[in-house]
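During the reporting period the student researcher (J.K.) took over the structure-prediction task from the postdoctoral fellow and processed the backlog of single-chain submissions. One of the processed entries is reproduced below for the supervisory committee.
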Amino acid sequence: MPSRKPMNDEPCPVARSVNLIGDRWSLLIVRDAFDGMRRFGDFQRSLGIARNILADRLRKLVDAGILDLQNASDGTVYQEYVLTARGESLFPVVVALRQWGEKYLFADQERHSLLLEKHTGRPVPLMAPTAPDGTALKPSATEVQKVK
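J.K. obtained the following structure tokens:
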């Protein structure tokens, strides 16, 4: 299989982001980290992923500054993967994917997990880009300024 062209010189932020975290396993690792997982074995059990693929994705996420490898918080000899500030800033991305999936990928009344705000126990409100005046921002109201 041909290898993908590195996108470090790509001027599009979406392309660079997808190159780093756009594969299934990386996003699901980040999702599980938001759910409190920290150990290699926990990620492996949750995802059913091969050890070598998991090790590769975790290494890439650590190298990218999304996860940090630390000594286990319980004092054991294990190490834990902890979201960094950069990793935590992916939360809106994960929430947006979740909300899109809830809207389009489940039949009416089909059971699925919910993201709740801990303090109120209520579902997290729908995320949507807004204009400076607070109104919903539609794609047709935006444009990408290309690099020349």
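The committee noted the following: The chain has a mean pLDDT of 92.
J.K. will present the remaining backlog at the next meeting.
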